[in-house]
Amino acid sequence: MLLTVYVDDLLLMGTSQRCEAVATQLATSFELVALGPVKYLLGVEVVVDRELSTVFFSQAAYIEELLRRFHMKDCRGVATPEGGTSDIDKERVDATQMNTLPYREIIGALQYLVSGSRPDIAHVVRRLGQYMSNYGANHFAQAKRVLRYLKATKDFGLKMKVTGSAEVELLRLEAYSDADYANDQQDRQSISGYVTMLNGSVVSYGSRKQGLNAQSTMEAECVAMNEGARDVMWLRGLCDELMWKYAVPTLWCDNTAAISLFKRPGKHNGSKHIENRYHYVRNLEERELIAVRHCRTDQMTADIFTKPLARIKFAQFREMLGVGRRDQQGGAVEAEDDRAASVCMVVMFAAK
After folding, report:
1. Closest to 212 in 3D by CA, of 221, 201, 223, 227
2. Looking at the domain assignment, is residue 153 inside a domain?
């Protein structure tokens, strides 16, 4: 069984019998409050469905509270969190206008959603977060658009597929990395996006500026691949710690030039400023710790973390991430069922 700790909250994962036995043993040293089968954890609703073999994470109640708090409860929903074009990168305002808008409060609240169950808004929240100390009416309007999108998708969440040990011998670890070249209008730095998956379910994801000025699309993709490689190596280390068996992790990229740079030996004078990054990925593949592979652009899940997307493409990649409504078929796992091995019991404790 597994036990995770966050401050004074414990999450026990295993069969009901084992969870109860561990809780009883902990009670001899700590004052415990058993909260029963997990329904909410750190503000995230958790629904385990045995028949569909899924775990669904959502924050509908939190979104409802945000809409009330920022007077958007009756707003009209939209299909995407950001438009295809925006001039927020060029806007500059004075402090007087900034003090009248609850911009920082909205972005802070949205960041919690990104970390909990909504990777589909990661890119726009990262972008808006750049202007926490210098924002104006256009930035505020874009932040409200995100709330309008959440209004239309408040019952969306992140779905993970549960795979039993009898169904697969080796776990499948994958990372998708992508980049949007020279995207930022202020400094022309590129944007990296990556998502790491375990057996097709999202585990980790990110959207960030690269911190350097790539000289080409290929270089921007190399930097993004470095971030994807580091993240999947973290997941590999976690699986090692849990003694889970897995196949060689795959790093997916849709840029053939970047892949050839990692696979082709020799020095590349035009790419010296990113040497450490591509040598890191190349070394991992040479040691067979990861396998770099090409995928089609329309299958590049990480594209959603690099730039605004049109409605149809955005919906496609959102679905590939596992973000959507929970299927109503099947039922939640009962507390008595010893097969309920994914999430079972939440406990609060304090030392005696």
Report:
1. 223
2. no
* Helix, strand, or coil (residue 246): strand
Q: Is the pLDDT of residue 12 over 50?
A: yes
The two structure tokens encoding residue 290:
């990861």
pLDDT tens figures, 245-285 = 999 999 999 999 999 888 776 655 555 667 777 789 999 99
User: How many domains does the chain divide into?
Assistant: 2
- Position 83: which residue type? G
293-342 pLDDT, tens digit each: 999 999 999 999 999 999 999 999 999 999 999 874 433 333 333 333 33
Q: Per the domain annotation, does 68 fall within a domain? A: no
Q: Is the dihedral of CA 129, 80, 305, 85 positive or negative?
A: negative
CA distances from 73 to 121, 156, 320, 324 (A): 19, 17, 29, 21
Distance CA 163, CA 330 (A): 16
What distance separates the 2 farthest-apart alpha carbons in the chain? Answer: 64
How remote is the C-alpha of 347 from its chain's centroid? Answer: 26
**Does residue 32 sit within a domain?**
yes
Whether 249 and 350 share a structural domain: no
DSSP string, 260-273: HHHHS-S--GGGGG
Same domain, 281 and 341: no
CATH number at residue 271: 3.30.420.10
Q: Can you give the pTM of this predicted structure?
A: 0.88
For residue 343, give its domain range. Answer: 1-37+333-352
Where do runs of H (alpha helix) occur along 197-274? 217-241, 256-263
Same-domain pairing of 175 and 291: yes
- Closest to 16 measured CA to CA, from 322, 333, 292: 333
Cα(97)–Cα(99) distance, integer angstroms = 6
